[in-house]
């Protein structure tokens, strides 16, 4: 009964905002989902809206992690021409909300009871000043390994459970004549590996360093150890890694040219798009030493202030995104877990089921942390300061000792 009332209330809200206008409703959407797997997932949303009579104006800005998209967005808003909805991560959403640029989704969120089904960890980025400003689409996490199954089998078939076993596996891949680590040298990808490495050195350490920005943790021997491990990983990438897009690195693992990629679970979208099956063609596992903990990032569509004639379509888009059916259909393709806690895992593959279970476990155990690399630990200024040090060290411009010192100084300078 209450479900019926809720559905009716939502329909009434949307009908009222449509106001009987017959012009074609549309949403203009800025995003960075341009790889094969990402585009396939986005298509689920496009088709859903088109089936509701809402046209999709696409504004793709290529560049994994969204750095380039955020630059284009700034230019658009400065020109007084904000899109309807923008794919956005964590603290960036709050920064735009602070500027007063975002609209209010309360009427639809309250009518649909989002409060009860969207986890608090996401709500802290979907709400500002108590008001809903963004619609969360998914929950990704960064502490994953994507391994070519045939290469793993040729190396003995055992998943590495700690750092030493991981290095032994990389050696075995080298002996097979393949590139041990598929990687793209871009700051956000380097930082994504750093998420996994630092988390594997302890959940307290990760929290102290990247959530609390504690100078003692940032300047610790453990942090030096983390950088040392980055140098080890660096020694296993191929000569052409610089600037390579993340999905091309995924393709190296898919095609058996490389052994493993350290990447968030959007990588799974590429494997699935290529017709590969978990457990048969590839293996997904947590970064060794991080099982039980999760560094997450949630893609949300931040809704910008739009003119009255565009509001109904914007609310409809938000409503569609939060529908449980859409949440399942989209995230099955994208590689992420749903942004609602009440979506069954029935349609998800083994890696998807694991993502959902790991997330629930980490959330219950207090080991769920925002990803430093993907804007969920700190605002962009801090994130970029960390990126800079991590990338310079990865590329051999800084020793581990120098990187630790620079990290403390760089974080202090932007706070
Ligand atoms: C992440 C985003 C994912 C995926 C990835 C690579 O920041 O959350 O959805 O798009 O970048 O582009």
Topology:
Blueprint: H1 2-18, E1 25-31, H2 36-51, E2 54-60, H3 67-78, E3 85-89, H4 90-98, H5 106-112, H6 114-117, H7 120-126, E4 127-128, E5 131-132, E6 134-136, E7 138-141, E8 144-148, H8 149-154, H9 163-175, E9 179-181, H10 187-200, H11 203-211, H12 215-218, H13 221-234, H14 246-254, E10 258-262, H15 267-273, E11 282-286, E12 294-297, E13 299-303, H16 308-321, H17 324-334, E14 337-338, H18 350-365, E15 368-370, H19 380-394, H20 400-414
Helix pairs in contact: 1-5, 1-16, 2-15, 2-17, 4-7, 10-13, 10-19, 13-20, 19-20
This protein binds beta-D-galactopyranose (GAL).
Q: If you had to describe this structure to a student in words, what would you say it looks like?
A:
The chain is an alpha/beta fold. The protein has 2 domains: 173 residues, 3-Layer(aba) Sandwich (D-Maltodextrin-Binding Protein, domain 2); 203 residues, D-Maltodextrin-Binding Protein, domain 2. 53% of the residues lie in helices and 15% in strands. The strands form 4 sheets. Strands 2-1-3-13-6 form a 5-stranded mixed sheet. It has a 4-stranded mixed sheet with strand order 14-7-12-15, sandwiched between helices. The N and C termini lie far apart (51 Å). The chain binds beta-D-galactopyranose. Beta-D-galactopyranose (GAL) binds next to loops.
């Amino acid at each position: 009964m209450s479900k019926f009332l809720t559905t009716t209330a939502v329909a009434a809200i949307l009908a009222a905002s449509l106001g009987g206008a017959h012009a074609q409703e549309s949403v203009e959407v800025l995003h960075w989902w341009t790889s094969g797997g990402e585009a396939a997932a986005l298509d689920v949303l496009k088709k859903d809206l088109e089936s509701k009579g809402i046209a999709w104006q696409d504004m793709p800005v290529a560049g994994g992690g969204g750095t380039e998209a955020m630059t284009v967005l700034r230019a658009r808003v400065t020109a007084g021409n904000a899109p309807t909805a923008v794919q956005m991560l964590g603290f960036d959403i709050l920064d735009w909300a602070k500027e007063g640029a975002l609209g209010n989704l309360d009427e639809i969120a309250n009518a649909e009871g989002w409060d009860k089904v969207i986890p608090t960890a996401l709500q802290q980025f979907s709400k500002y000043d108590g008001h809903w400003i963004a619609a969360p689409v998914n929950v990704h996490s960064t502490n994953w390994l994507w391994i070519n199954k045939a290469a793993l089998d040729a190396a003995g078939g055992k998943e590495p459970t700690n750092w030493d076993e991981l290095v032994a596996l990389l050696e075995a891949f080298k002996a097979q004549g393949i590139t041990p680590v598929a990687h793209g040298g871009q700051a956000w990808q380097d930082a994504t590996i750093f998420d996994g490495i630092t988390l594997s050195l302890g959940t307290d350490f990760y929290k102290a360093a990247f959530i609390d920005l504690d100078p003692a943790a940032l300047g610790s021997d453990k942090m030096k150890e983390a950088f040392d491990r980055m140098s080890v990983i660096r020694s296993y990438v191929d000569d052409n890694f610089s600037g390579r897009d993340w999905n091309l690195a995924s393709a190296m693992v898919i095609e058996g040219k490389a052994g493993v990629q350290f990447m968030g679970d959007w990588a799974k979208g590429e494997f699935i798009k290529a017709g590969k099956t978990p457990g048969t063609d590839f293996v997904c596992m947590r970064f060794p030493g991080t099982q039980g903990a999760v560094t997450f990032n949630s893609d949300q569509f931040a809704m910008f202030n739009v003119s009255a004639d565009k509001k109904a379509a914007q609310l409809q888009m938000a409503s569609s995104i939060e529908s449980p059916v859409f949440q399942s259909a989209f995230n099955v393709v994208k590689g992420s877990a749903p942004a609602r806690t009440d979506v069954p895992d029935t349609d998800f593959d083994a890696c998807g089921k694991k993502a959902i279970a790991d997330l629930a476990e980490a959330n219950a155990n207090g080991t769920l942390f925002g990803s430093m690399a993907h804007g969920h630990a700190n605002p962009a200024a801090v994130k970029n300061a960390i990126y800079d040090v991590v990338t310079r060290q990865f590329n051999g411009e800084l020793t581990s000792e120098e990187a630790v010192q620079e990290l403390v100084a760089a974080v202090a300078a932007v706070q």
